[in-house]
Write a structure and sequence with these properties.
- With about 220 residues, this protein is of the alpha/beta class.
- It has seven helices and seven strands; from the N terminus they run βαβαβαβαβαβααβ.
- The chain has a seven-stranded parallel β-sheet, sandwiched between helices.
- α1 crosses α7 and α4 runs parallel beside α5.
Length: about 220
C-alpha cells in the first residue's frame, strides 16, 4: 500500500485522518511520543515516528530512513486566542514554530522521498488562512504564511501534488477553548465533525492520479 505520514495524529482531526486513510495507506504517525499517539497507532496498525517541532534540528535525522513517501499531511497546529493587543511575543513565536516553521522543517528533508513517489503534500489550513479571524491574530497570520508555503511548494516542485485544505470550525478540543475565550457555550453539533473533514482530506488524497486538487474549502452547513 502507499505510505502516508500524518502529524498531530494523537487526537481530534489527526486521529480522524488516520482512520480515514488506514484502509488505503500504510500510516506513519509523526509526533512526540505519548500514550495517546501509541493508542491511535495500535488502533490502525500504524507506526509512530518521533518528530518534535520543539526540536527542529533533530527532524532531519529522524526522517532520514524514509526513502519514499506517497503522502505527507501537515495537521499539527496550535492556537492562542487573542487580539493583537492581547497577544504576546511568546505566543507569536510558538504559533509560528508549530504552524509554519515545523512543517517547513519536516517537508524539506522529505522532498527526495516525496519526489521518488511523485507524492502529495496536504496542508490542513483554516478559514483563518483566507480571511483573518477576530480574536485569532497569531493563528490567522500563521495560516496565511502556511498557505504561502504551500503555494510556493506547488510552484517549485511540479512533480508533487500540493493541497491546502481550509475547513471552517471543527468540533475539537481547540475549538472548545476558542469558544470559551469568546464567552459562548460550546455545542459540537454547530461545527464540522473531525470525521467529515478527514473524509474530505482522504478524498483529495485518493483523487485519480491525473487530478491535482490545489485547494479545498469546506464549511458547516448550518
Amino acid at each position: 500500500m502507499p505510505t502516508a505520514m500524518i502529524t498531530g495524529a494523537s487526537r481530534g482531526l489527526g486521529a480522524a485522518i488516520a482512520g480515514a486513510l488506514a484502509p488505503t495507506h500504510t500510516l506513519f504517525l509523526a509526533g512526540r511520543p505519548s500514550a495517546e499517539l501509541d493508542a491511535v497507532a495500535a488502533e490502525y496498525g500504524a507506526t509512530t515516528w518521533p518528530v518534535d517541532f520543539g526540536d527542529l534540528d533533530a527532524i532531519e535525522v529522524a526522517v532520514e530512513p524514509i526513502v519514499e513517501l506517497d503522502v505527507l499531511i501537515h495537521n499539527a497546529g496550535v492556537a492562542y486566542p487573542a487580539t493583537v493587543p492581547e497577544s504576546t511575543v511568546d505566543e507569536w513565536r510558538s504559533t509560528m514554530i508549530v504552524n509554519v516553521v515545523g512543517p517547513v522543517a519536516l517537508t524539506l528533508p522529505l522532498l527526495p522521498a516525496l519526489r521518488a513517489a511523485r507524492g502529495h503534500v496536504v496542508f490542513v489550513n483554516s478559514g483563518a488562512g483566507i480571511n483573518a479571524s477576530p480574536g485569532l491574530a497569531s493563528y490567522s497570520a500563521s495560516k496565511f504564511a502556511l498557505r504561502g508555503f504551500a503555494d510556493s511548494l506547488r510552484n517549485d516542485e511540479p512533480s508533487l501534488r500540493v493541497t491546502s485544505v481550509h475547513p471552517g470550525r471543527i468540533a475539537t478540543e481547540m475549538q472548545e477553548g476558542l469558544v470559551a475565550y469568546e464567552g459562548r457555550d460550546y455545542d459540537p453539533s454547530h461545527y464540522l465533525s473531525p470525521e467529515t473533514v478527514a473524509k474530505v482530506i482522504a478524498d483529495a488524497v485518493n483523487a485519480p492520479p491525473d487530478a491535482h486538487v490545489h485547494e479545498v474549502i469546506v464549511r458547516p452547513r448550518s
